[in-house]
């Protein structure tokens, strides 16, 4: 089964007017958490990503919260290695819960969707500060225009979905209500 078909079947590929975490707008949004509602599809996708990154021989998989938590666990299961996640505390991405990266450990970062790479870049800083050896980055979906990282980047599908700056957004001009679907916008 193709990745795009899985995204559509699980309701992970949404259409509307969305505020992205970058501040830009789009008429398409991928909510990969929906994919992981269905373990058979989540496992299928994780196994595909594990196959792509195993050549880099990681010792540890880390994912940024929220999008990378399920994926890090599932990918690490197929590689039979340890996994952890980073999360925000006082606005900064950090390791909590007793998680640590050992000096010299080969680390792969996984994320569900990468657009600007902001969360992944914050996790890269954690890996570097911990003395880990970043070997690769993997994602289910690549929405970026290029590889925004200095290490190998593997992904399962590249989706070139339209992205607009707020002042040039045709959806805003049509007065279509703006939605804030991402994890950074969860209301408390």
TrEMBL record:
Gene3D superfamilies: 3.40.50.2020. GO terms for biological process: 'de novo' UMP biosynthetic process; pyrimidine nucleobase biosynthetic process. The keyword Glycosyltransferase applies. Coiled coil: none annotated. Orotate binds at residues 115, 143. Pathway: Pyrimidine metabolism; UMP biosynthesis via de novo pathway; UMP from orotate: step 1/2. Keywords: Glycosyltransferase, Magnesium, Pyrimidine biosynthesis, Transferase. GO terms for molecular function: magnesium ion binding; orotate phosphoribosyltransferase activity. It catalyses: orotidine 5'-phosphate + diphosphate = orotate + 5-phospho-alpha-D-ribose 1-diphosphate. Residues 39-140 form the Phosphoribosyltransferase domain. It holds the Pfam family Pribosyltran. Its EC number is 2.4.2.10. It is an enzyme of class 2 (transferase). 5-phospho-alpha-D-ribose 1-diphosphate binds at residues 111-119. It comes from the Bacteria. Its cofactor is Mg(2+). Belongs to the purine/pyrimidine phosphoribosyltransferase family. PyrE subfamily. Catalyzes the transfer of a ribosyl phosphate group from 5-phosphoribose 1-diphosphate to orotate, leading to the formation of orotidine monophosphate (OMP). Homodimer. This is Orotate phosphoribosyltransferase. It comes from Thermosipho africanus (strain TCF52B). The gene is pyrE.
């Amino acid at each position: 089964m193709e990745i795009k078909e899985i995204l559509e079947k699980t309701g992970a590929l949404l259409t509307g007017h969305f505020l992205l975490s970058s501040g830009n707008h789009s008429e398409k949004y991928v909510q990969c958490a929906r994919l992981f509602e269905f373990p058979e599809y989540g496992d299928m996708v994780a196994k595909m990503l594990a196959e792509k990154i195993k050549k880099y021989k990681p010792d540890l998989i880390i994912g940024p919260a929220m999008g990378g938590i399920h994926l890090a666990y599932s990918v690490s299961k197929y590689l039979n290695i340890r996994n952890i996640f980073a999360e925000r505390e006082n606005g900064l991405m950090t390791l909590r819960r007793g998680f640590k990266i050992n000096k010299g450990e080969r680390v792969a970062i996984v994320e569900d969707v990468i657009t600007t790479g902001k969360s992944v870049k914050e996790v890269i800083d954690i890996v570097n500060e911990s003395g880990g050896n970043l070997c690769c980055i993997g994602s289910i979906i690549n929405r970026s225009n290029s590889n925004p990282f200095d290490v190998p980047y593997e992904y399962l599908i590249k989706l070139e979905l339209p992205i607009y700056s707020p002042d040039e957004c045709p959806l805003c001009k049509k007065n279509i209500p703006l939605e804030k679907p991402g994890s950074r916008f969860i209301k408390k």
